[in-house]
Amino acid sequence: MAATTEELLQMILQSLEKVEYIKSEDIPNIDLYMDQVLTFMDRKLRSAVRPQTEDRILTKTMINNYAKNKLLPPPEKKRYSREHLLMLIFIYYFKNILSISDIQTLLGPITEKYFKSVTEKDMTYIYQEVFSMEQSQIRYLEKDLMRRFKSAGEIFEDADPEDKEFLHQFSFICLLSFDVYMKKMIIENMIDHMNSSKDTDSSKKDK
What we know:
Structural class: mainly alpha
Order of helices and strands: HEHHEHHHHH
Helix content: 55-70%
């Protein structure tokens, strides 16, 4: 029997509780070779992908392309540092919604200032500050999902009874998709503004 919309919501909420970001203290302080990096990332991020997904979280080709496109500094003597792993985690999350050029815009200044920094404000500092918001955001997301679920269940009241369950699920997915679409547009507008500001600064320096 297919799950009802409410049962699906409960499954989603339960799955959110199981998703954990990679804690900075879990990241090795020793340099890793490519195969070790792939194994580490796959083990730590597997809970964030669909159960039926068999592909690896990252592949050798992906990582080589990130370095080629200057998203990731090249490894030293074929080994990747703790800072490389932190960058790869950011790239992993960004690549699902942003283009390569947009990720370059976001991570370029971070790499330039904080990668291999000799001060306390290094890549670990950036990572810990950003992901310290994780727990509060999950609580907010749970409440937001409940609100959208309620809104989706209040329409299609005149639909045929046999269609209501599917239509409620469809409307719930539409609400979530619109939210993703709008947030993606906002992010892209912010990145465009970053690029515009960078071009303006470059023009001033050239004068």
